[in-house]
Specification:
Shape: globular
Order of helices and strands: HHHHHHHHHHHHHHHHHHHH
Helix content: over 70%
Number of strands: 0
Number of helices: 20
Mean pLDDT: 85
Low-confidence stretches: none
């Protein structure tokens, strides 16, 4: 017997989804973009919302439509080996290589570093990250407790603190939204905002979090066939809440230019804004707010990494994978936030196009019958452009072989200079794949000469 859907459960799962992927990056990148975009904040925000909110929601719908329970299922139509490779790369990207270490590094730089003398910064980060990841590990050792900790306690507290700042900025605005525009946002503002949304990693994270969210829904007593509907409803609520917060944070960043210069990063800008409204207490307030934001995300990343990897490689236990990601995240976090962000950008330029293509193909999978021809043609034409986008964004320059390739790529392929060179190859690949799929079905549906003769004999 199917359990009756309760509004309380829908909002609880929505809170879980929101708390798992809304971290410090989601907090500071919109503020930073607001300062950089200045008077062009609106088109930049529209672009940001596509990759920052629409794509994660489509990722949840893709999981629902395909009845998938993880990243592997979404990518499997290409080939099992590709699905395994994509799963590993995705989890390493949002896990111990970049995403999870960024949570602790951001919390330290915004919440703890301002209180420490320069000579104690390295030691402070070492101690802070050890405590941070140890506590996150402890709370995620029991998978059933994830909904309780994130959905019931940590996420609501974080939202209260964040909404307080936004309400103060609305009641006591810092200034006009007609501000100076940074060069990168003077033209192609929409596309720049679109690419800025990559930094949130939400499109990748929602594919990875799918397995965790599915377990959480089933843990509330819902049957497997009820999971897709619950994901779609809960996901819509969480995405709408995120979109409203993004708009508020972008406006906050833009209006802050009336009082402050453009900050080096969104963390500094947000700290200045909070200090403006709350004085010296603002530093402590920021520490609590940011730590809550990133801690819920770290828990979600820990759990999804361990659950998906255990499912794919069952000989290694969930707890063993949990220890691997905890230790790996601790090591990477101590490389420093600047290095983490610098190397994350090129990897995201590779992973996001592949993820977007898989999500869109999944949304139409029922019509395509998850055809390998369509999936393979689209992915394999998208991949070269995505690799060139990776090369173009490496934090090293003047590479002998790569530089001429990237220059030619930007010169001759439409949208490549804007970071979206993969779009045209993906469309061409989809067209070729669909054409082959159509003709193959036509050939299979046409009766053979022998069958026609048999039919004629039976009719006579």
């Amino acid at each position: 017997m199917l359990k009756e859907t309760k509004h309380r459960d829908t909002f609880l799962i929505a809170s879980l989804i929101f708390g798992m992927f809304f971290g410090a990056g989601n907090l500071i990148f919109p503020v930073q973009m607001g300062q950089n975009a200045g008077g062009n904040w609106l088109p930049a925000t529209l672009g940001f919302l596509i990759t920052g909110t629409a794509v994660p929601f489509l990722a949840m719908l893709a999981v629902s439509i395909t009845d998938s329970t993880g990243v592997y299922d979404v990518a499997k139509p290409v080939a099992p080996w590709f699905a395994t490779l994509f799963l590993i790369l995705l989890h390493l990207t949002i896990g111990p290589f970049f995403g999870t270490p960024r949570t602790a590094a951001t919390a330290f730089s915004m919440g703890v570093a301002p209180f420490l003398p320069a000579r104690f910064q390295t030691l402070g980060m070492l101690i802070f990250s050890a405590l941070f990841f140890s506590f996150a590990y402890y709370l995620t050792t029991k998978q059933s407790d994830l909904v309780k900790w994130i959905g019931k306690y940590l996420n609501p507290l974080f939202l209260v603190l964040l909404v307080l700042v936004l309400v103060l900025s609305f009641v006591l605005p810092m200034g006009s939204l007609k501000q100076a525009v940074q060069p990168t946002y003077a033209s192609n503002t929409f596309f720049q905002g679109f690419l800025d949304g990559y930094n949130t990693m939400d499109g990748l994270a929602l594919l990875a979090f799918a397995v965790t969210i599915v377990y959480a829904v089933q843990g509330l007593g819902y049957k497997k066939e009820q999971v897709p509907k619950m994901l779609a409803k809960s996901g819509l609520f969480s995405i709408l809440a995120e979109a409203l917060l993004y708009v508020g944070l972008v406006v906050l960043g833009t209006s802050s230019l009336s009082l402050f210069k453009t900050a080096a990063n969104g963390g500094t800008a947000f700290s200045q804004i909070v200090h403006h409204y709350l004085g010296n207490f603002g530093l402590l307030f920021t520490a609590v707010l940011v730590t809550l934001a990133v801690f819920t995300t770290a828990m979600g990343l820990f759990a999804s990494f361990s659950q998906d990897m255990h499912k794919r490689f069952p000989n290694v236990s969930y707890l063993a994978w949990l220890r691997i990601t905890a230790v790996g995240s601790f090591i990477t976090a101590n490389a420093g936030l600047t290095n983490i962000i610098a190397w994350a950008v090129p990897v995201l330029m590779l992973m996001y196009p592949l993820a977007l293509v898989l999500i869109l193909l999944s949304l139409f999978s029922k019509f395509l019958k998850r055809s390998r021809i369509v999936y393979r043609a689209t992915i394999f034409l998208t991949l070269p452009a995505a690799l060139l986008d990776l090369c173009a964004n490496l934090p090293v320059t003047n590479l002998p072989v790569i530089t001429p390739l990237v220059d030619g790529y930007h010169k001759y392929l439409p949208l490549a200079a804007s970071g979206l060179g993969w779009v045209l190859p993906a469309l061409v690949g989809a067209f070729l794949g669909l054409s082959l799929f159509y003709f193959k079905n036509r050939l299979n549906s046409q009766p053979t000469k022998a069958s026609k003769e048999e039919t004629a004999t039976e009719n006579s």
